[in-house]
Each structure stands twice: as structure tokens, then as C-alpha cells.
Amino acid sequence: MGIQFTILGSGSTGNATVVATEEGKVLIDAGLSAKKVEQLLKERDMSLSEIDAILITHEHADHIKGLGAIARKYDLPVYANEKTWEALERHIGEIAESNKCVMQTGEVREFGSLQVESYGISHDAAEPVGYCFYHEEQKLSVATDLGYMSSKVKEKVRDSDVLVLESNHDIDMLRVGRYPWNIKRRILSDVGHLSNEAAGEAMLDIVSERTKRVYLAHLSRDHNLMDLARLTVNNIIEDRLEEDDHRAKLMDTYHDRATAWDRLGEE
Predict the structure, then answer these.
(1) What sign results for the dihedral spanned by CA atoms 104, 164, 115, 156?
(2) Strand-pair partners of 54
(3) Is the pLDDT of residue 77 over 80?
(4) Which helix (H) or strand (E) holds 147?
(5) DSSP H helix total and E strand total for the chain
(6) Coil/strand/helix, residue 159
């Protein structure tokens, strides 16, 4: 069946994504409660008992909220780099030593027929990563929680068939929003989050003829709107591309429900 995935939740309230092939299925982050993940997967005709492993991007609460409970209940191996393990262990309770798996940044692992490569990103966490997923000729990349998109990150995610890309905030909404200035400054910094404008600019460098869809992800509930994110990104693209240039389709994500299964290779 090739690669398919569903984004169970995306945003500051919790993040979790399932990536699957016929012979390998992984959960990326567990920032929703175990009960919520079970419910959302049931709606997508899947169970956590089918998952082979959990991959962690970083230790912030919106990415690990349900991790301990899920790992214990389903006896699942959890993969993260050493610094991330050091930062998250005290937050997730007891996990069997055999399920504490180290996957260093830049390493490639195989889960059945699914290949997974991690890559370093810029965010205010111990050692945050993004992931690229490969199966035969297919490539899916997940790039969220980015302070900025370095040339190395662009190189890793370029030429993906489908890309999940952070479009966290509208800069003007953030500046006049209710957050104290120190938090605003963190979000706007090189170890914060990617704005709508930055997402649009990044797409100009990383979307190729091969890229069919880009999911705008990790939107702030306080300082963004899905329609605004899509409009901002689209305006940047339309302003800079020629009429005949390739455009990837922009896709929505949600903080309170899962996306439909997306099967790579389908238009």
C-alpha cells in the first residue's frame, strides 16, 4: 500500500501522527492522552496494538502528554536521542528499560518496510528532531517546531511527495496577542516556531515537481487561523512563482480531530 499517514492532532494542545506501511507502523509523538489517541485511531480503523514503535521529536508537553501511559499499556518501544531521553524521563513515569530505545540524530532505522531518518532542527528543547519517512520511491517529511528553516533542514525535506510543515502563527496576531512579551520573543526567535510567512518562504525552496501536498501544521489556537495560514502561504507562493510553475496543494490540520488517511502516490 506504500506510505499512508494520519495527523491525529496538531497544535499547542497536543501533537501525534501515525505513519504506516503494510509492514511497519509508527506513532510520531504522543502529545494527546492515551484515551484520545485510542479514540482517534479507532475512527481511522486502527488500534495502538498495531503500532510498532513511538518516535519522539522532543520533550515538550504537547508532544509527550500521553507517552508514558501508551508505552506502558501497549508495551511499545520508544525512540529518542540521548539528550531528549534525559529531558523527558522524569515526566512520563516508569517505562520498561527494554522499551527505552536510543535513536541518535541523523540515524536511520527500519520498522518493517518503513525507513525512518531523523534530522536536527532549531527549537528550545534538549535536542529536537524532525523525521523523514521512506518506502521504496516514496518520501514523507515532518517538519514542525522550527525556529527557522536552516539550509540543512531544507536539504533533508526537499523533494518530498508530501510534507507536513509548521505554520504556527501570524506575526501581527502574535504581537498584539495576550501572551507576555518574553513568550512572544521566544516564539519569534530562532528556537521558537515558524510563522505563516516563514512557512511560505520555505516552501519556495523545498517544494519540487514531486511534491503533491503540504499540510500546514502546529497552528497556534491564539495567534493563527487555518484560513489565514493558507491565505498567507498561498499569497507568497503566487507572488513569487510563474504561472506555469508547479504548486503543491495546501492541506489543513486540526487540534481537535484527525485528518483523513493520506496515501502517498495518490493525487
Answers:
(1) negative
(2) 27, 78
(3) yes
(4) none
(5) 9, 14
(6) coil
